[in-house]
Design goal:
The complex is a heterodimer of chains A (505) and B (307).
Chain A (H helix, E strand, L loop, with lengths): L2 E6 L16 E6 L1 E2 L2 E4 L7 E3 L7 E2 L2 E2 L1 E3 L4 H7 L5 H8 L12 E3 L17 H9 L5 H4 E2 L2 E3 L8 H23 L5 E6 L1 H12 L6 E7 L7 H9 L6 H7 L5 H8 L3 H4 L17 E5 L2 E6 L4 H6 L38 H9 L2 H19 L11 E6 L2 E3 L3 E7 L13 E5 L5 E6 L4 E3 L5 H4 L13 E3 L10 H23 L1 H4 L2
Parallel strand pairs in A: 1-2, 3-10, 4-11, 4-12, 12-13, 13-16, 14-18, 16-22
Antiparallel strand pairs in A: 5-8, 5-9, 6-7, 14-15, 17-21, 18-20, 19-20
Helix pairs in contact in A: 2-9, 5-6, 7-9
Chain B lengths: L5 H8 L22 E6 L2 E6 L2 E10 L2 E7 L5 H12 L4 E4 L5 E5 L8 E10 L2 E10 L3 H13 L1 E3 L5 E2 L3 E3 L7 E9 L6 E7 L12 H10 L3 E12 L2 E11 L6 E8 L10 E9 L3 H14 L1 E2 L7
The chains are: A alpha/beta (505), B alpha+beta (307).
Chain lengths: 505, 307
């Protein structure tokens, strides 16, 4: 019987130890597994109430809490839900605050390939990757495909920690099968890019990651997050409705995104630029002239921590109400009226301050942004490849245009916002939120998407495509690029392995 | 407990429908004298067919959640001990009058300023449980408010702001809300949710937008059928009723009935009301029966006991 021995592929040209003369040896060459893990965008993961199987109802609500893959489910549970019910579905019970353990990804236990946990529209792309013939690469590498959904209501840092845990499990699983697996390739969509970069560069996971392929990542955030908190989600295709289910007006979106850290982490960070050298991205204009441009330096202090006062104070001419602040405190907890009523309404308003809760969540977002995008620039894995989308109207700058107001009194129409104010003479005016008009993928402006792009990356390099944000990976050109990016990373790994110092051979 | 028929006639007599807004809908006449269950929640009472059960309910007044629970399931001392154990030594226990006790705790360690005050008052065969969110530093306001709510609770649901086994008897709040979830016992897919919420301005934000509904159906490759759209007056409140059917490829058509009243400002007796019934198409008759019973029977509960 032959004596069996395993040898890792990159040690094939090294003299084998332990060979005996006059003995038959059978040497098995270990192929190396490089798992590909897809990390979806915000709202791209199915969520359920923690510690349930995502089936049935409990306490007035379905245990499954977010299921964009099923239009009927969305119609039943979210499309016409009130702000209070949306909060119940995604944030917490009425008198509790956000808790990262309230929801979890709706996936199998153990998660298997993880596909169950993500929006089924991603599956076509992932199945194509799974069926790809990798040619020469497959002689030494095997590339199993996984998905890793995440609880997008939670802090990106928590999601990244869960991703790293999943990476460890997948590496262990692949190693048990092939005998060799040290690193994975991450492919991200949108917010998934922030999760991947945090896992790699903030939480110390870089050594377990061969490279990251980013699609339409809001590297430095996107003013669309501000626009949508003020006005609701827009969108007319299936992906648009996925977002719209979260809310089509400021009150419906604020009650969700103002009460979870995940949504706030998509806001422009301190490195966001609307042009190469301008930090301001919120403009208040009148007759083509910009009256106020914010932020000058820090969007947290100048916009996010400023209470949105959407009505002018009585008798104040001109009014000074800060309608352009991000969050209207009155919208954070729709079940509670603040500042009016009897003695006990007063106590109710005093005992709990939703604004303080919001500031706490904002601090979580700011800390993440500062760690991930310090003044020296956005952190990124050394082996990064990115695509960005162009050709869609996108808010690089958000414009609030001052106009006369003949009787408008509702600041929050569906998919719109108007700050109400008085001029010097006491006439009613309104600052109307304008539709996005710059270039990008419809959500992420170009300058933010390309913020970690580098011109001399190996082929296929960082690229721009004429694609929309949500459906980026449905595009055939993007799919081909992603496949090429994976090949490029495998080749890089091949040469790294073969280096004497790194490979030991 | 059987439903009193008188209220339904009063409601129907008070109907007023804006001209030109009604489409014809035929409704079955239900026999409400038999086989009905009465449910009181917040400021309203309804009667539903016996084939329907309450899956869950929630009540909040002055921003404080209230619920009642009988003692027969888990002994009260055990329930309290479990809660106490869950939050460890950082939780702070406080005493209220009438043998009531409370606990301040921080449920999420990353946000220690966010506290919850949970309290319980034993009431003979059941207990009143209350809980509210509290910002650290504001514990005294929460204690005063919770003490008041615990003290004005009484068994029975003939007046006041009702939980399952009793009610809060005090001045109405600008912050009152309820949710009630009903399911059909034999057909679990038949479900009706009712939400009420006091408002400062009439709330039309949850009103059905048919254009959006149609766009959604189209986006998922389906069609939307508007079976009826009309104003309907319930308990003297004129709201809008929609009956929609959604058909998605390869799936059983779904029905959704909604009735939405936008609410009167600052009036706890006439809050924003949003009632949504869903079912798959083959279960339409079960949905219809529960829907009609609920809307026909919706009756205000007096704020105070009659003298």
């Amino acid at each position: 019987m032959a004596k069996q021995q395993k040898v890792e592929w990159f040690k094939l040209d090294i003299e084998l130890d332990g060979l005996e003369p006059n003995v038959e040896h059978e040497v098995e060459v270990c192929r190396e597994a490089i798992p590909i893990i897809f990390v979806p965008g915000i709202m791209g993961s199915h969520l359920r109430r923690s510690d349930t199987k995502g089936e049935g109802d409990a306490d007035d609500l379905p245990n499954l809490r977010w299921n964009p893959s099923d239009g009927g489910w969305m119609w039943d549970h979210l499309v016409r839900a009130s702000p209070a019910r949306r909060r119940l579905m995604l944030v917490n019970t009425p008198e509790r605050h956000f808790d990262p353990h309230y929801l979890e990804v709706d996936e199998d236990n153990p998660p298997g390939d993880g596909f169950r946990g993500i929006f089924t529209d991603y599956h076509e792309f992932l199945n194509l990757l799974r069926e790809t013939q990798w040619g020469e690469i497959s002689k030494i590498f095997t590339l199993p495909v996984y998905a890793c959904g995440f609880n997008w209501t939670a802090d990106v840092r928590d999601c990244a920690a869960a991703l790293l845990k999943r990476v460890d499990d997948i590496i262990a699983e692949a190693k048990a099968i092939t005998g060799l697996c040290d690193k994975v390739i991450l492919i991200s969509h949108s917010m998934g890019g922030l999760v991947c970069r945090t896992a790699s560069e903030v939480l110390g996971g870089r050594g377990r990651i061969l490279g990251i392929v980013h699609g339409v990542q809001p590297v430095n955030g996107t003013p669309a997050a501000y626009w949508r908190i003020k006005a609701g989600f827009e969108g007319f295709d299936k992906f648009g409705f996925l977002q719209k289910a979260l809310g089509n007006s400021g009150p419906k979106v604020t009650v969700i995104l103002g009460n979870i850290p995940g949504g706030l982490e998509l806001l422009p960070n301190k490195l966001y630029r609307s042009t190469a050298d301008r930090a301001d991205w919120l403009h208040i204009t009148e007759d083509g002239t910009t009256l106020l441009a914010l932020p000058r330096a820090d969007p947290y202090e100048e916009i996010y921590r400023v209470k949105a006062e959407v009505h002018p104070k009585k008798g104040e001419n001109p009014s000074t109400n800060t309608y352009w602040g991000l969050i209207d405190p009155a919208l954070l907890n729709p079940r509670r009226v603040v500042g009016e009523g009897n003695e006990f309404d007063g106590l109710s308003a005093d005992e709990y301050d939703p604004w303080a809760n919001y500031l706490g969540l904002l601090k979580i977002a700011e800390t993440l942004h500062d760690d991930l995008s310090p003044p020296t620039g956005p952190k990124q894995h050394p082996q990064t490849l990115c695509i960005s989308g162009t050709g869609r109207h996108t808010a690089t700058v958000v414009e609030l245009r001052l106009e006369s107001n003949w009787g408008r009194s509702d600041p929050y129409p569906n998919q719109g916002f108007r700050g109400l104010l008085h001029d010097d003479a006491g006439h009613n005016r309104q600052a109307v939120l304008q539709d996005p008009a710059d270039d990008g993928d419809g959500t992420v402006p170009l300058l933010s998407a390309i913020a970690v792009d580098v011109s001399r990356r190996p082929l296929p390099g960082d690229r721009l495509f004429d694609v929309g944000h949500q459906s980026a990976y449905s595009d055939a050109h993007v799919r081909r690029w992603a496949e090429a990016a994976i090949r490029a990373l495998c080749k890089y790994h091949f040469y790294e392995r073969r280096k004497p110092a790194a490979g030991g051979g | 407990m059987k439903f009193n028929l008188a209220a339904a006639f009063l409601i129907l007599a008070g109907c007023s429908v804006p001209a030109g807004q009604e489409t014809k809908v035929e409704y079955r006449t239900l026999d409400r004298r038999e086989n009905m269950i009465e449910v009181s929640i917040g400021r309203f009472r309804i009667a539903i067919p016996e084939q329907t059960r309450v899956a869950s309910r929630h009540q909040s007044i002055y921003g404080v959640d209230i619920r009642t629970a009988p003692f027969d399931d888990v002994p009260i001392a055990t329930q309290w001990r479990n809660l106490r154990a869950q939050f460890g030594p950082d939780a702070r226990e406080i005493k209220f009058p009438d043998d009531a006790i409370g606990l301040f705790y921080a449920p999420y360690s990353a946000m220690p300023m966010n506290l919850v005050l949970e309290a319980m008052r034993p009431m003979g065969s059941h207990a009143l449980w209350v809980s509210c969110a509290v910002t650290a530093g504001k514990e005294s306001s929460a204690e005063r408010l919770v003490a008041k709510i615990l003290s004005v609770y009484g068994p029975g649901t003939r007046h006041g702001f009702c939980a399952e086994l009793g009610s809060i008897r005090m001045e109405g709040s600008l912050s009152e809300s309820t949710t009630l979830s009903l399911v059909h016992k034999q057909t679990p897919g038949v479900k009706i949710d009712m939400e009420t919420q006091t408002v400062m301005t009439p709330d039309t934000s949850t009103f059905t937008s048919l254009d959006e509904e149609r766009d959604l159906a189209k986006a998922y490759g389906g069609t939307l059928d508007v079976r009826s759209e009309r104003y309907r007056t319930v308990a003297g409140m004129t709201g809008k009723e929609f009956r929609l059917a959604l058909t998605l490829a390869g799936k059983t058509p779904k029905l959704r009935y909604t009735w939405q009243f936008s609410g009167e400002p600052r009036n706890p007796a006439r809050p924003h009301i949003n009632i949504v019934g869903i079912a798959e198409s083959p279960s339409q008759s079960n949905l219809e029966a529960a829907w009609e019973a609920l809307l026909d029977s919706l009756t205000p509960i007096p704020m105070e006991a009659s003298r």
